Amino acid sequence: MLNLIFSLLFVSGWIFVSGSEVHTVTVQPGEDVTLQCSNISAYPTQTDWFRVVNKTKPSCVSSMYGSDSEASFCHGFGNRNFNMSSNVSFVFLQIKRVDLSDAGLYFCGFYISGHTVISNAVELRIQGKIGVNDIFICSYAFV
Ligand SMILES: *[C@@H]1O[C@H](CO)[C@@H](O)[C@H](O)[C@H]1NC(C)=O
Ligand SMILES: *[C@@H]1O[C@H](CO)[C@@H](O)[C@H](O)[C@H]1NC(C)=O
Ligand SMILES: *[C@@H]1O[C@H](CO)[C@@H](O)[C@H](O)[C@H]1NC(C)=O
Ligand SMILES: *[C@@H]1O[C@H](CO)[C@@H](O)[C@H](O)[C@H]1NC(C)=O
After folding, report:
1. Which Pfam families does the entry link to (predicted)?
2. Model confidence over 41-75: pLDDT tens digits?
3. Torsion sign over Cα 130, 80, 15, 108
4. From the CA of 49, which ligand is nearest?
């Protein structure tokens, strides 16, 4: 786990994460952060970001279709500082000016062959708040 944390690259408030396991990123309140997950779909499809907070509360954050459609935001996220985008290889979720309530486990799902398949997960910790530890996602059927 430690070497995963050390593999994070911090560039002026932007954080890039690579790989397919659960990574942890830690930021200070007020910073911007960009989470990313690998695009595991071979074709354009419904792509979603999800979040679990307090270990038990999952919610949908945002969705887009393929790599260049406009993202739509789920209830509670549309008026916040969230931005979903993609460069085809990776799907990004930028959160501007994070606050403590943004902490949680973020992961994205791709609707592939009738199932929502989860790509990698990223745990976002906000300094000053204890993060969620060791949550394992087996499968989610949000559809
Ligand atoms: C998570 O737990 C904290 C502390 O109990 C609480 O203040 C917060 O509202 C909870 N968040 C959600 C989304 O339920
Ligand atoms: C969202 O991110 C994309 C890609 O980085 C960028 O082109 C776009 O301007 C951003 N939108 C907002 C509202 O920040
Ligand atoms: C997509 O973004 C990743 C992470 O920022 C970067 O490493 C990669 O080169 C980008 N790919 C393209 C095609 O721009
Ligand atoms: C994922 O990659 C496939 C194949 O290149 C592409 O068609 C699709 O639009 C990409 N999806 C996203 C969300 O970038």
Report:
1. V-set
2. 999 999 999 999 998 999 999 999 999 999 999 99
3. positive
4. 4
